[in-house]
Specification:
The chain is an alpha/beta fold. The chain contains 14 helices and 25 strands. The protein has helices at 31-39, 41-44, 78-83, 97-102, 133-139, 185-195, 210-217, 234-241, 266-272, 283-286, 289-294, 329-338, 390-400, 403-416, and strands at 2-4, 20-23, 47-51, 67-71, 87-89, 110-115, 142-148, 167-171, 203-206, 226-227, 231-232, 257-259, 261-262, 278-280, 298-303, 306-308, 313-314, 317-318, 321-322, 343-347, 351-352, 355-356, 358-359, 375-378, 381-384. The strands form 7 sheets. An 8-stranded parallel sheet has the order 1-8-7-6-2-3-4-5, sandwiched between helices. The protein has a 6-stranded mixed sheet with strand order 10-9-15-20-24-25, with helices on both faces. Strands 17-16-23 form a 3-stranded mixed sheet, with helices on one face. Helix 6 packs across helix 7 and helix 7 runs parallel beside helix 8.
């Protein structure tokens, strides 16, 4: 194992032209390594990077002179890449990422990880993310670790030893942060309706953004909630700290909040440090259909860009721009549908500016099919489409559309000749 300083790190010694490079997403980005990678790209030659959710502006469109970028998501800084025509979009479910990055077409040649200092036995914890990195680490030719003493030591089944690392670069810098969004009044109304669906003892899954965070903020009067999610954020931490989330009624991982990564602020990182109540697991576990179906009363809370009257969901494209992802929504919605007492929920404001987000026909791809439709929530109500024929689905979806758009939606149905 090479132990080098940041200034002495020459990545061209380890990364070959044509390689695929993968690193931890969001707060888990090893910023010293990724910054160095972009600076030294000319020394390496053409290579490919797989990007997750960005929490920094490390990667920019001008870096695409020598780097090909591919990602499953178009949020944050990835939007600039997409607008510039420099992002290859992978429209794949989140549960497929371990296979793609481990031994599939996107197999990682080099993995960059951010780790805390090792424990007394010389073992490194996953720090801020296990997620899809586990699969990439198992098959990568080279693993380069940024060992950052400001990264929390977290718990989970996977640890790394010195023999798993080819290069170690020691740093001390604050990890990237993702701060909670502030919901507007409409989002707050949607969140209140979703929160009303969550009973004591439920196990929660939630996505990224102001709406899921707002829902979590309204659950402070619940008891014995659990968490099994792709991520843990500051709002979830608040519920754990308040004793609302105990995991006492979970079927699996009782007493533990399970997620793939931490996405939040330093306050969350400090809370997670050596806290056994938080367990980081890989995507193969967090998104596993059997694990999800076995969870007690799994409530999956996901958002959408638009939904149609039959229950199809577009969570990827808005105005022709890729701003979202297929993501894990389908995985979690199907898991919640099979969970005893579970609720598959898609929540969104009824409008985006002057446009309705409940539509007669999607303007983008079908990210989640109508066969997986569960409960849809806007500020105007809850439409339960489970087990309902198309006629009833249309009626229920019209009832939660914005009143100003309902007549136009009905007219569009007539033009399409929708059967009764």
């Amino acid at each position: 194992m090479d132990d080098v300083t940041p200034d002495a790190l020459d990545l061209s010694r380890y990364i070959r032209e044509g390689d695929t490079v993968v690193w931890g997403q969001a707060c888990a980005e090893p910023q010293t390594l990724t910054e160095r990678l972009m600076q030294q790209r000319a020394d390496i030659g053409h290579f490919r990077c797989f990007l997750g959710i960005p929490a920094t502006d490390t990667v920019r469109p001008d870096h695409a002179d020598l780097v090909s970028f591919v990602s499953y998501i178009g949020s944050g800084g990835n939007r600039a890449l997409h607008r510039a025509g420099r992002l290859d979009v992978l429209p794949a479910p989140y549960s497929s990422l371990p296979g793609l990055l481990g031994a599939g077409p996107l197999r990682a040649d080099v993995v960059l990880v951010q780790l805390p200092p090792p424990d007394g036995d010389g073992r490194y914890s996953p720090g801020l993310a296990d997620d899809y990195l586990g699969a990439a680490l198992r098959t990568a030719r080279v693993v380069i670790a940024e060992v950052n003493d400001q990264v929390p030591y977290t718990y989970g089944p996977r640890t790394l030893g010195a023999s798993d690392l080819d290069v170690v670069v020691r740093t001390s810098r604050p990890p990237a942060e993702l701060r909670p969004g502030t919901p507007d009044s409409v989002t707050a109304r949607v969140a209140a309706r979703v929160a009303g669906l969550v009973d004591d003892g439920a196990t929660l899954q939630f996505g990224v953004g102001a709406l899921p965070e707002a829902v979590l903020g309204l659950l402070t009067d619940r008891r014995d909630l659990g968490i099994h999610s792709g991520l843990i954020n500051d709002a979830a931490m608040d519920l754990i700290e308040a004793g609302v989330v105990t995991g006492a009624r979970k079927t699996l991982d009782r007493g533990e909040a399970v997620a793939g990564l931490l996405m939040g602020t330093r306050r969350l990182f400090r809370f997670a440090h050596r806290n056994p109540a938080i367990q980081l697991r890989d995507t193969g576990y967090t998104h596993d259909p059997q694990t999800l179906a076995a969870q007690h009363q799994l409530v999956a809370i996901n958002s959408a860009i638009e939904v149609d009257l039959s229950g199809q969901v577009n969570s990827e494209l808005a105005g022709g721009r890729y701003i979202g992802a297929v993501g894990g929504a389908g995985d979690f919605l199907r898991g919640a549908a099979r969970s005893p007492g579970g609720l598959p929920v898609v929540a969104l404001p009824s409008t985006a500016g002057p446009a309705s987000r409940v539509v007669a026909r999607l303007s983008g791809p079908v990210s989640t099919s109508r066969s997986d439709a569960g409960l849809f929530v806007t500020e105007y109500g809850v439409a339960d489409l489970r087990g309902q024929p198309l006629r009833v689905r249309r009626e229920r979806m019209l009832a939660i559309a914005h009143p100003d758009h309902r007549a136009a939606l009905e007219a569009a149905l007539e033009e399409q000749g929708a059967p009764a």
